[in-house]
Specification:
With 483 residues, the protein is mainly alpha-helical. The protein is 81% helix and 0% strand. The longest helix has 45 residues, at 437-481. The chain is globular, with a radius of gyration of 22 Å.
Amino acid sequence: MTKHKHNKWIILSIITLASFITNVDATIVIIGLPKLMQDLHLSVDAGLWIITSYAVTSTVFLLPAGKWADMIGKKIIFIGGFTVFTIATILCAIATSGFTIIPFRFLQGAGASMALATATPIIMQTFEKKQLGLAISINATSWVLGAIIGPVIGGALIDTLGWRSIFSLTAPFAIAGSLLAVFFLPGDATLRAKSKMDWRGLFTFSTALTSMLIVLSEGNKWGWTSYSIISLIAITFIGFITFIYVEQNHISPLFNLSLFNNRQYTTGLFITLCYLIGYYSITFLLTIYLQGILQLDALHAGLLLIPLSLPQLILSPIFGSLVDRIGAPTLLFSGLLGQTLGLLILGTLNTKLSMPLLIIALVIISASNSMAWPSLAKTILETINLKEAGIASGMFFTINYASRAVTQTLVLLFMEISVPAALVTTVMSDAAQTHSDLQIFSLVKAVDISFYIFALFMFLAALLTTLLFKTKKRTIIDLQSSR
């Protein structure tokens, strides 16, 4: 395996820039959604599709992009995806209405997925195993930096220059990243030149995953027992079952199901699902709380989210180095427990904003996430053969992005346990709408209950991590017995 020792930090910088930009774009839209819906006169459902459209294609194309990377080259797919993302970002900035943005957001998500699916395999190809944790943690820090800049700068731009500026902000960075990738990213030493594309696998997987994401996005609006939702649920199940059958019988499958025989990889995917369902709830619930209930503007709400990101920006490289020294499971377990504690603290929010309480909770979560995320990424990917890195990474990020859609749906469902659906719709669509003291109390209580439930997801992820200690111990025993 060729190591690009002289250019490895330049390569990591390019990959990190891609992660940074895609996360900036995601967080800017979330924090700016209430204002965007007001300016464009969109309903909550239409507004959420500005987020969902990006989530659908960025999720659906991850696994195919990983496969294409293994077949025709990581560099080609990365540059192609980054270019598509850049063009789509410019189109979003010049869109004429909320409904014209949605197709461009679909295109933007597809481009982002191609860049992200190849990012981690390129890092694995470039860095030796003893530096892999550090490299992954630096790359993860870019997501954190994006999370800082997204809410703060996005809030300021929306309040002063309007919603178009949230897209035009990232375009110059995306153009620069695409050009740098052409000159500095390495080519692939080994490719599956004779492999054929698994079109049946692509069709069945895309159909099933798209149906599932639509169910998650539209279930509340259409009704969970409606004919449309029940039909889509049936399509989802049939699609995934057919996909498994197709993959078992294809000579070059879209996803190699034998990867699930790797217990560490499979356990890591389940941990990822529970972990990210809990983590992605934070920004969504705090946006409802800060902007919808407390009626703060986008800029001030964004500033209050800085403690969620700043500690991780500092600590991620430190813990990334420790992952390489003391092992991932210990840091992963500790990080997940810390985030569980942070979510429980957020579950004590009140009708009056307590700055110390909010800051303490977010700092704990951020510091804990700096331990957990690089540990999880290395745990999942370090045991995978480099030839399978594309599809393995594609599945990992598919779970990642699908978790966002699951979280979005669960937030609405959990909120509606305590308050009427109409009130949840109002507080999300019109931050200027005044509410009675009783309504505010009910909404805050619903947010608190939701944080408690999402804390359970994070704790379940911590419990699943204990299986990794057993897996590691079994691997050591097997190695000793084979000598």
